[in-house]
Design goal:
Chains A, B: Keywords: Oxidoreductase. Two copies of one chain form a homodimer. With 438 residues, the first copy, chain A, is an alpha/beta fold. Among the domains of chain A are: 60-176, Alpha-Beta Complex (Quinone Oxidoreductase, Chain A, domain 1); 181-367, NAD(P)-binding Rossmann-like Domain (Rossmann fold, 3-Layer(aba) Sandwich). Helix content of chain A is 31%, strand content 23%. Chain A has 13 helices and 18 strands. In chain A, strands 5, 6, 7, 8, 9, 16, 17 and 18 form an eight-stranded mixed sheet that branches. Chain A has a six-stranded parallel sheet with strand order 12-11-10-13-14-15, sandwiched between helices. In chain A, α3 (174-194) crosses α4 and α3 packs across α11 (347-362).
């Protein structure tokens, strides 16, 4: 996770660049600003600053580039060489990209084995098939699709293996499709494959107003008589209360509140937190109940210092004694869709889930909630909004949008801060925990 | 778990008895024999030794009594007052009782909060409803039933709450019914409720020749294209190979053998072992796979000394980091049917499972495998057989049987040892691990 020496990194254009890499978390915190400036200078020599001209050379495309790990100032829109599909790959003219909390962790380098900077972030997009490589039966130019991408989704054009590409229904918009893939698949697999949600069960979901949270509540509504307990910031309560049976302020300890209503606990706990909360989540389970950890948001407390927090929470997380699970008839699970897709060859399992989800969409039983649309050039503002928990549903990068905010709903709590996060860099430890929406 | 002082215990007949209880594992090992003799003398003063006369006073009934925790000599058949049903209870004239590996652990006192001795062991039986208490709608005198009992099943007559009683199909024999309840329910709930077994999956089950193992393999056969990996003693292989896709000698490490056949591992691991094997079991899981610990047989290594082994394995068992589960997309679960039924109010969940199982039975898709029938007076020999892993399928106490061995199959490996276990008391540490069949 910690790189130990200077390495020669190859830029996308083939020009070698010297990228000085971190040797330890403290080095990283100390040297962050210096590295950032150095990297920016190198990039700037080659490419003009944003906004990039809307007239795109067919050999180039616009993309969001992460120039180094750290704050919002490490993100910029730039031109990159046009990718071409290899064998088994589909080339997509991107219309919309999904923004996830995980992208904040990536930006900070707070993930295991991050790619070398600079690179284009983003794990999901929707768009139109522009060309196909060999052996891509089933896809044709002009197909409307959504896709998982192992980085590089935040661009005008993406090439990705056909196993990660799905045709979308005619009436599904591109922002809906980009809001659909990761969050609904994660919610579906957790509820129905890991936890086996059935009639009459109860579910606790944190960040019920987030994109995964909204997917979870919608999927719960497809099963008769499911009780949903949810936590969310108070200002979201009015907007989401129709989808949650019992809604709690995320700033209070929900354990006693849930037990007041359901003394036996709940059947399923979906936890995007970690550490001390694992024990709390387990304690809320009914016998035969399932606790699923799908993210660990207290890893992320702000900027580079959270690299420390990451290591800390890893070691401090409460371990679980299997014999206790045996005595209490409990199940504990972890779920990472990205690992399943890109490290563990889980495409066929994901495909099954997508098919079932598209069927539910066609029956109008689920519909992705889009919080807001942002131009590529507004990626910093969008990230700040997800960081501030301002969103209800999904933040979308709309590739064809010009940089003027266009809200999909009327939330009055939108952060317009943009660069504000930068100024708080020294104050990371005091920040609130954040959800990990993947 | 360790009782700390002398207590006054009330005998079933209402005569107070002084039962000296263990103060520590070493005390227990040291004083086991002495306590046993003391307890036996007290019992013998009141009741004649077995065999008890077949002519039963209607105010009394025959039952197997555990006179103290320890070896086989702590078991005897005796007369007990006839129980009468309380409100909500059903009185059953017992025809057959199930014998589980758990009963060996109970005999040794190797369970959490065991009841005070003397008591009648046994958790399941089948028979005919002889009378009912108030508020027992749905049951009538003469109904053929199977039942879960919170101890006291090994008797001619049992009273148990109606929530634990199920009518059985006309063509299900009483031994089949007694072999059905615990093992098939455990297998069903693990495969279909905890692990969500579906078409095309793979399952590893240890002790595939045991009663739970046979229930697991039969239930796997009700789902298309399920691959079953199983371990069993070599002499059982011929008899059970039709039910297991890949069968391994239980004395070898099956991990590399399974990986040779399926390099990615399996979807479900059912583990009746514990401790070091938890890590092995987890390592065999495919992404999205489920490991279920349903017993911990290396707790039981023989007689009283295993109390030590129990504590040891409790503390030594490998704990699981939830973040590792998250990264690897794995699920770990524990399952204890007895805790679910008798401590955690899980009757309604169990009822759903029983209904589905009876439907499968009626469709002739599953059929309990009965290893052998034993008279109550032969309970020691039966326990020795399960201890020696001699059984294929279920050992049944046939209440109406006279004490002559009657084998349900022709296995040549039957242990006729009976009291042999006693003589090995000093050699517990070298004994093989045993399955925990509940």
């Amino acid at each position: 996770m910690v790189r130990q020496e200077q390495q020669r990194a190859q830029s996308p254009g083939g020009i070698p660049q010297t990228v000085r890499l971190f040797t330890s978390p403290s080095d990283m915190a100390k040297e962050g600003t210096e590295i950032a400036e150095e990297t920016e200078q190198m990039i700037d020599q080659k490419e003009p600053d944003n906004p990039v001209s809307a007239v795109v050379d067919s050999k180039e495309m616009r993309a969001v580039l992460l120039t180094g790990f750290g704050g919002l100032n490490k993100l910029k829109v730039t031109k990159k060489p046009m990718p071409e599909p290899q064998e088994g790959e589909v080339k997509i003219r991107v219309k919309a990209c999904g923004l996830n909390f995980l992208d904040l962790m990536v930006r900070q380098g707070n993930i295991d084995n991050p790619p070398k900077t600079p690179f284009v972030p983003g794990f999901e997009c929707s768009g139109i098939v522009e060309s196909v490589g060999e052996n891509t039966e089933g896809f044709e130019i002009g197909d409307r699709v959504m896709a998982f991408v192992n980085y590089s989704a935040w661009a005008e054009v993406v090439c990705t293996p056909l196993d990660f590409v799905y045709k979308i229904p005619d009436d599904m918009t591109f922002p809906e499709a980009a809001a659909f893939s990761m969050n609904f698949v994660a919610a579906y697999m957790m509820l129905f494959e890991v936890a086996n949600l059935r009639e009459g069960m109860s579910v606790l979901v944190h960040s019920a107003g987030g994109a995964v949270g909204q997917a979870v509540t919608q999927l719960c509504s497809t099963v008769p008589n499911v009780t949903v307990f949810g936590t969310a910031s108070p200002f979201k309560h009015e907007a989401i209360q129709h989808s949650v049976t019992h809604l709690f302020d995320r700033n209070i300890d929900c354990v006693p509140e849930v037990k007041k209503i359901s003394p036996d606990g709940v059947d399923i706990v979906l936890d995007c937190l970690c550490g001390e909360n694992t024990g709390k989540g387990l304690s809320l389970l009914k016998p035969m109940g399932t606790y699923i950890l799908y993210g660990s948001s207290n890893m992320v407390t702000g900027e580079t210092k959270s690299f420390f927090s990451f290591a800390k929470s890893w070691w401090q997380v409460e371990k679980v004694n299997p014999i206790k699970l045996y005595e209490e008839n409990k199940v504990i699970a972890g779920f990472s869709l990205l690992n399943l897709l890109f490290k563990q060859g889980g495409c066929s399992q994901v495909k099954t889930a997508v098919q079932k989800l598209l069927s539910l969409y066609n029956q109008k039983r689920i519909k992705p909630v889009v919080d807001s649309l942002w131009a590529l050039e507004e990626v910093k503002e969008a990230m700040q909004r997800i960081h501030d928990r301002g969103n209800i549903g999904k933040l979308i990068l709309d590739v064809e949008k010009s940089p003027t905010p266009l809200m999909a709903n009327d939330s009055t709590e939108t952060s317009e801060a943009g660069e504000e996060e930068e100024e708080q860099e020294g104050d990371n430890e005091n920040k609130e925990r954040m959800p990990f929406i993947q």
